[in-house]
Design a protein that fits this description.
alpha+beta; 19% strand; Rossmann fold; 21 helices; five-stranded mixed beta sheet; 651 residues; Ribosomal Protein S5, domain 2; flat; eight-stranded mixed beta sheet; Heat Shock Protein 90
Length: 651
């Protein structure tokens, strides 16, 4: 039995657990920043690359708060050769006096005390993303060292910290003509799994902030050896420029030439929305609150969606595109092909967590709805040509949705998508608890046969892929339901797609794509990933999708057999085994016998799996549009730029 499955199978009834003593001494109080270092995931989500970059975001967000207060117009972010990063702004700087509440220097309070800052209603900031006042102190706690220099009211102050503790006391260094804050910190290797910043990841975030704060200049530069580059980000058009940029990335035709921009004005709370439709079948709606990405949406996004549907339906009936007997267009219909950016700013933004993923202020829904009810309706009346094109796009989506419904009902009548019916080629597993099971999507019948014979049938299910997988980037949902290569996958997973998708009905905890380690295998992987990204995105977001890593070579000398996953590893093993060793390249998974496939690719004890993650939804959207879209030139440019990273592409 695989150890991983054995561990998961154990239950409380199987274990002989004696209750431990529970005394007053068992209650521990974590002082100061100790709690942050003890449980970093509570504050930055993860200690992997995402958490590493989150430290930079927290410090930059403080500078953006100055931008939104109208006292800063330039932010510079520098990746230093020693692995540290510097964030410098030309805002007001941090006051250099003693904080009356704590008796400590104000600068020290900001960087060592949780829930401390100028964002708690005392007039420091009207608009701020840093709701909880923990960003600067968390970044300090999780850094090997941090150096802060603040120029405020003609005086220069500094202080240095080591893992959140004062290393060099607060000091005044004299007079200066500068103003603003300069923070340099080096993430702590005791906390983070990776310590190397990715320039492109930071660039995406900095570009986003530059779009959201029209007029600000954000300079990102990399001074690390052999990695030198820089970008000067400055967009006077704000979120309208953002929508134009996003549609350029999609390499699609735009339905109407102009970008629809709406705003309530500068008085708080304020809302602004920018919209443009393209000829794709996918929607891109991105929302922000006080320049913080609200990945899970919230009240501003709810208001946008409801108003968009209402206004377009009213307009469609007014121009006669919808008759009295016709059903209204659905939300999915009016959002097909849309690219939209929603940005709100307010004094008391209520987020659901420190990561600020969902906005909760109920009044913001009304604010956004009222704005769009008036201004989107005005745009449509004043621009009838664009309005007609948008309605025609939505009507086409509605017809396709109706065709998809009929196709879905027909396939259900044939028992193809019924949850109780499984595809004929599926070799299911014995275990029924989804969190313990794995489904291998295997390229080809030959490899499927080896996988069936080599698997552990208690928790591993095998589904050989049938025929050519549909490129869903170029197809609406009705084509998906009619495709014989995708129906068995939908059926086996059991959670449906589109309107029917329900993650709670998922039958397998891991969905593992196992294809040959060649160009054809890569194509199959990208087709399947496109399908999951466009129609079952939550599977990726919740960490259910994996890529198997079959070896490229079998290296042997006598009875000694080892496997290599790339050329460099093959050469290392040959050197290790000696000149009499031989290397055989596998042409495909079907060449492996069941024992070899189990040992190299399926045994949880020794295999390597790559979890598919969405670290940047916009970058993923760009990649799928470029690779799987109709235009050749963007695909060629993408491949030329990324070919050397193709094996380990982190989607």
């Amino acid at each position: 039995m695989a150890e991983e499955w054995k561990d998961l199978e154990a239950t409380a009834e199987d274990a002989d657990l004696e209750p431990k003593e529970y005394e007053d001494s068992n209650i521990r109080v974590l002082e100061g920043l100790e709690a942050v270092r003890k449980r970093p995931g509570m504050y930055i989500g993860t200690t992997s690359a995402g958490g590493l970059h989150h430290l930079v975001y927290e410090i930059v967000d403080n500078a953006i708060d100055e931008v939104q207060s109208g006292v800063c117009d330039t932010v510079r972010v520098t990746l230093n050769p020693d692995g540290s990063v510097t964030v410098k702004d030309n805002g007001r700087g941090i006051p250099g006096g003693i904080n009356p509440q704590t008796g400590l220097p104000t600068l020290e309070v900001v960087y060592t005390k949780l829930h401390a800052g100028g964002k708690f209603g005392d007039g420091g900031y009207k608009v701020a993303g840093g709701l909880h006042g923990v960003g600067a102190s968390v970044a300090n706690a999780l850094s090997e060292w941090m150096e802060v220099v603040s120029c405020h009211n003609g005086q220069k102050f500094s202080e240095r910290f080591t893992r959140g503790e004062v290393a060099r006391p607060f000091a005044c260094e004299g007079e200066t003509d500068d103003h603003g804050v300069c923070v340099t910190f080096k993430p702590d290797g005791e906390i983070f799994e990776v310590l190397e910043f990715d320039y492109d990841t930071l660039l995406n975030r900095m570009r986003e902030q530059a779009f959201l704060n029209a007029g600000v200049r954000i300079i990102l530069e990399d001074t690390r050896p052999d990695m030198e580059r820089s970008d000067d980000l400055h967009y006077e058009g704000g979120i309208a420029s953002y929508v134009d940029y996003l549609n350029t990335l999609k390499h699609c035709e735009r339905i109407h030439p102009d970008i629809i921009y709406m705003s309530t004005g500068k008085s708080l709370p304020s809302a602004e929305v920018a919209i443009q439709y393209n000829d794709s079948y996918n929607e891109t709606v991105i929302s922000f609150a006080n320049s913080m990405t609200t990945i899970e949406g919230g009240t501003h996004e709810t208001g946008f969606r409801s108003a968009l549907t209402r206004v377009l339906n009213d307009y469609a009936r007014r121009i006669g595109a919808l008759k009295d007997a016709d059903k209204n267009l659905s939300g999915e219909d009016v959002r097909e092909g849309i690219t939209a950016v929603i940005s709100i700013k307010m004094e008391d933004a209520q987020f659901e967590s420190q990561t600020k993923s969902k906005l909760g202020n109920s009044e913001i829904r009304t604010l956004v709805e009222n704005m769009m009810n008036v201004k989107l309706a005005e745009y449509l009346e004043e621009n009838p040509a664009s309005g007609k094109l948008i309605i025609e796009k939505a009507l086409a989506a509605s017809r396709a949705r109706e065709a998809a419904r009929k196709a879905r009902e027909m396939t259900r009548r044939k028992s193809v998508l019924e949850g109780s019916t499984l595809p004929g080629k599926l070799a299911d597993c014995q275990e029924r608890r989804a969190d313990l099971t794995e489904l291998y999507l295997v390229e080809g019948d030959s490899a499927g046969g080896s996988a069936k014979d080599g698997r552990d049938s208690r928790f591993q299910a095998i589904l050989p892929l049938r025929g050519k997988v549909l490129n869903v980037e170029k197809a609406r949902l009705d084509k998906v339901y009619a495709n014989q290569s995708l129906i068995p996958i939908i059926q086996a997973l059991g959670c449906g797609i589109g309107e029917d998708f329900d993650i709670t009905k998922l039958r397998y905890g891991k969905i593992i794509i196992m294809a040959d380690a060649d160009v054809d295998g890569s194509h199959i992987r990208i087709l399947l990933l496109t399908f999951f990204f466009r129609h079952m995105k939550q599977l990726i977001e919740d960490g259910h999708v994996y890529l198997a890593q079959p070896p490229l070579y079998k290296v042997h000398r006598g009875k000694i057999v080892k496997y290599a996953f790339n050329d460099a590893e093959r050469d290392r093993i040959i050197a290790e085994l000696g000149p009499q060793s031989e290397a055989e390249r596998y042409k495909g998974l079907g060449e492996m016998d069941p024992d070899q496939l189990w040992e190299t690719t399926m045994d949880p004890t020794y295999r390597t799996l790559l979890k598919v993650e969405i670290n940047d939804a916009i970058a993923c959207d760009e990649a799928f549009s470029a690779l799987m879209g109709d235009q050749v030139e963007p695909r060629r440019e993408f491949i030329e730029k990324n070919a050397k990273f193709a094996v380990n592409l982190d989607i």
